């Protein structure tokens, strides 16, 4: 049924005109909603005066976190803000929503057999309506939630909201909704940005889901639906998961709903308090704020001038958080929701409605950041472009002589770009350098740990174009590029999934084991709390459009769009490194002690040759490992073909000439200096380096350092590589020769090693050779990720 037909059918219910007592009934079939408002205000002088006064009320913009919120000074709302809603007060006054108690001049428009629409005589919005139940029943949402969906079907250009009986409703004894002008609330105005922070909890289909909004100043959930049945189903799931406080008839909540074309959006704020502490404070500490749905959505109403003038963004955020459930309470709600949903849906939290997700990438952190907006961007309500500078001053981000906690620059076109100066690439590697880099997408600036961090929010597929071009030459074979697109996408989505699970977990994540004589530490993306991944080799090398992708990279992304590796209904954490050294490593030897069957040791050579060799050599055995590392067994990655290497590696990667086998020589003084500087411990003379534990590729995961004053054990592989080099040792698969021993003290140490990087998953050089030899991308993936399956997650 189209909108016009809907409105006509409602209008046909209103045929009479009544003016002797109670409410006047409008002949709505003769008038549009606009005409209804005009006719009502023409007849009701008091209401007309308040709507006129609303146009003159003072408002101010306030920064709350990353959002632009509004405060409205509205003295007429003292009636609602100061309303007493205890049982005694409600019993002592007639219900002003019951028809018999309304002003005779107040008109109504019948919506259906249950609800009718009235002008709200104490407006906050340019258009403001009250939609009461036609019978006197208490405010309760469970049986009436779908009415908001129906209202949006009838009035798609309005928004509607619900205040729970202890959450801003001034008539908790009479069920009602309110509605009014859309695109006035900061919640709605910032929805495009907020929608990027959704964490899906229940997904019914490609268009309908229940999610948590992680980017709002206080906890909030969102239901996105098209059908009334799906809307109700998702709401009841959330309703049943919310806590019910003593003596309450329903969970405390506020709801704001609106439409975007055929999509129905409802944001639910889970509450725990009716009014904040400042409402009951004395003297200068008092602020008469009684938050309802509009306040929770970023439009704060203050009926007193002194409160309007003094309230700050920090105070607003504190009030919103005070009103809503705590972080631990939200975790309990989410746990209830995810425990009852389909395992497939609850596992893939990063995929919303089978649509391409976005990723937040940490680019650079500094006290001062210089950048250029190359096209028009929107920031703090104004369009800006050109050269910009931000500085960390007195614990805030200073920009254009104003101070902020967070800044967001949103491009006004899909092709909008920004450039960041002095971005460091190859952090702590031998090719480390600074350069200016250019990026698509949104730029966010946030503070943490005495620095401003520049974060790029961008779609996954655009991110991948940069990663593939940055990780290897765009002239690589198409099959290699396609394989790399799949694993880069898989790894990225797996990290986003992992971050979301960690945020919801009740226990912390630990990336080290510390004893008196030993530290075992591993490094992963859990180090990042402000963003999903960083832009450097610590995660995946991402340089925006500084390295321009050619048609082969774009084609590889296009042909594999949405494809990931899956293992037992989970996205594979598809790791990769430059050169495995002949055998790939297994996950637990480099990171936490968790088995990932698809990341097991693989001989890097054709399967038919592997079958002839029968089994892998046991490189956890020291004698076998030494023999393996000191020789050069055949492998895909055992190549010196410059044509292949030039296709795979960027120029600064080619500065490393030895991939498969290498040697490093240290003097006693140099090795002692490195170890003591990196560990912050005093060893004296270094007497020996002893491998206590090796992985399946021969990489050392626990290394005992024997000194004349201290013996200490370190691990895992990256900690070992960082300790034994100014930047990073090529790998931890090495054996040690002690030279020129004087009085038991070696004067020289020679490390003979195999491979480059951690060696887990795909070997980039080996995969490049496979691509040149005619292997297809799925064959390359099947070689390195055993038992993993290709699956398309989004279009």
Automatic annotation (TrEMBL):
Pfam families, per database record: DUF4922, GDPGP1_C, SpoIID
Biased composition (Polar residues): 1-12
Domain called DUF4922: residue spans: 36-180
Taxonomic superkingdom: Bacteria
Region (Disordered): 1-21
GO BP field: sporulation resulting in formation of a cellular spore
Cellular component GO terms, alphabetical: outer membrane-bounded periplasmic space
Domain Sporulation stage II protein D amidase enhancer LytB N-terminal: 450-567
Coiled coil region boundaries: none
Stored InterPro entries: Bact_Sporulation_Assoc (IPR051922), DUF4922 (IPR046320), GDPGP1_C (IPR058865), HIT-like_sf (IPR036265), SpoIID/LytB (IPR013486), SpoIID/LytB_N (IPR013693)
Occurrences of domain GDPGP1-like C-terminal (ranges): 204-339
NCBIfam families xref list: SpoIID_LytB
Protein's UniProt name: DUF4922 domain-containing protein
Native source organism of the sequence: Hoylesella timonensis
């Amino acid at each position: 049924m189209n909108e016009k037909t809907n409105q006509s059918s409602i209008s046909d219910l209103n045929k009479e005109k009544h003016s002797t007592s109670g409410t006047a009934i409008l002949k709505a079939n003769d008038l549009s909603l606009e005409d209804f408002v005009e006719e009502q205000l023409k007849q009701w002088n008091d209401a007309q005066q308040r709507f006129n006064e609303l146009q003159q009320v003072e408002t101010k913009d306030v920064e709350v976190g990353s959002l632009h919120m509004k405060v409205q000074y509205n003295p007429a709302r003292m009636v609602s803000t100061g309303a007493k809603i205890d049982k005694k007060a409600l019993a002592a006054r007639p219900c002003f929503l019951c028809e018999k108690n309304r002003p005779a001049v107040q008109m109504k428009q019948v919506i259906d057999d249950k609800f009718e629409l009235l002008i709200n005589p104490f407006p906050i919005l340019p258009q403001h309506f009250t939609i009461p139940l036609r019978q006197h029943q208490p405010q309760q949402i469970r049986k009436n939630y779908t009415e908001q969906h129906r209202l949006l079907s009838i009035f798609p250009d309005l928004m509607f909201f619900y205040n729970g009986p202890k959450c801003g409703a001034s008539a908790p004894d009479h069920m009602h909704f309110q509605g009014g002008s859309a695109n006035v609330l900061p919640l709605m105005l910032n929805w495009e940005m907020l929608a990027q922070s959704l964490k899906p909890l229940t997904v019914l289909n490609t268009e309908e889901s229940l999610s948590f909004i992680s980017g709002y100043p206080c906890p909030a959930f969102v239901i996105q639906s098209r059908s009334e049945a799906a809307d109700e189903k998702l709401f009841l799931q959330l309703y049943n998961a919310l806590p019910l406080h003593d003596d309450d008839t329903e969970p405390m909540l506020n709801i704001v709903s609106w439409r975007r074309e055929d999509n129905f959006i409802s944001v639910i704020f889970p509450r725990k308090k009716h009014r904040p502490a400042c409402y009951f404070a004395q003297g200068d500490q008092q602020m008469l704020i009684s938050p309802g749905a509009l306040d929770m959505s970023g439009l704060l109403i203050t009926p007193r001038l002194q409160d309007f003038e003094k309230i700050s963004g920090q105070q607003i955020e504190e009030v919103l958080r005070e009103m809503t459930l705590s972080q631990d309470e939200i975790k309990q709600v989410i746990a209830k929701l995810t425990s009852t949903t389909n395992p497939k849906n609850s596992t893939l939290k990063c995929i919303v409605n089978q649509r391409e997700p976005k990723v937040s990438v940490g680019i650079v952190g500094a006290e001062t950041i210089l950048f250029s907006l190359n096209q028009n961007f929107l920031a703090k309500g104004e369009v800006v472009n050109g050269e910009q500078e931000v500085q960390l001053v007195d614990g805030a981000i200073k920009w254009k002589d104003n101070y902020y906690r967070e800044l967001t620059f949103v491009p006004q076109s899909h092709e909008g770009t920004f450039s960041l100066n002095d971005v460091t690439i190859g952090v702590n590697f031998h090719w480390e350098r600074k350069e200016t880099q250019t990026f698509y997408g949104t730029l966010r600036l946030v503070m943490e740990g005495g620095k401003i961090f520049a974060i790029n929010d961008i779609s996954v597929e655009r991110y991948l174009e940069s990663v593939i071009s940055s990780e290897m030459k765009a002239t690589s074979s198409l099959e290699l590029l396609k394989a790399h697109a799949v694993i880069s996408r898989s790894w990225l989505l797996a990290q986003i999934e992992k971050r979301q699970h960690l945020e919801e977990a009740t226990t912390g994540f630990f990336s080290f084991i510390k004893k008196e004589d030993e530290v075992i530490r591993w490094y992963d993306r859990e180090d990042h709390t402000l963003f999903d991944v960083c832009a450097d080799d610590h995660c995946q090398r991402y340089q925006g459009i500084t390295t321009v992708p050619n048609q082969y990279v774009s084609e590889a992304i296009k042909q594999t769009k949405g494809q990931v590796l899956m293992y037992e209904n989970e996205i594979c954490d598809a790791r990769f490194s430059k050169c495995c050294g002949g055998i790939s490593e297994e996950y637990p030897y480099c990171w936490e002690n968790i088995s990932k069957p698809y990341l097991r040791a693989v001989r890097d050579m054709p399967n038919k040759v592997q079958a002839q060799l029968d089994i892998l050599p046991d490189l956890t055995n020291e004698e076998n490992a030494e023999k393996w590392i000191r020789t050069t067994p055949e492998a895909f990655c055992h190549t010196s073909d410059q044509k292949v290497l030039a296709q795979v590696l960027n120029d600064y990667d080619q500065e490393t000439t030895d991939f498969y086998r290498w040697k490093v020589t240290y003097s006693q003084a140099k090795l002692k200096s490195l170890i003591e500087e990196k560990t912050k411990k005093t060893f004296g003379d270094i007497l020996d380096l002893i491998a206590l534990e090796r992985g399946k590729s021969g990489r050392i995961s626990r290394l005992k350092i024997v000194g004349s004053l201290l013996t200490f054990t370190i691990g895992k592989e990256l900690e070992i590589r960082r300790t034994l080099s100014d930047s990073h040792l090529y790998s931890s698969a090495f054996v040690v020769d002690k030279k020129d021993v004087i009085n038991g003290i070696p004067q020289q140490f020679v490390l003979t090693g195999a491979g480059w990087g951690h060696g887990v998953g795909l070997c980039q050089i080996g995969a490049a050779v496979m691509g040149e030899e005619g292997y297809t991308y799925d064959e390359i993936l099947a070689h390195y990720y055993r038992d993993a399956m290709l699956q398309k997650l989004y279009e």
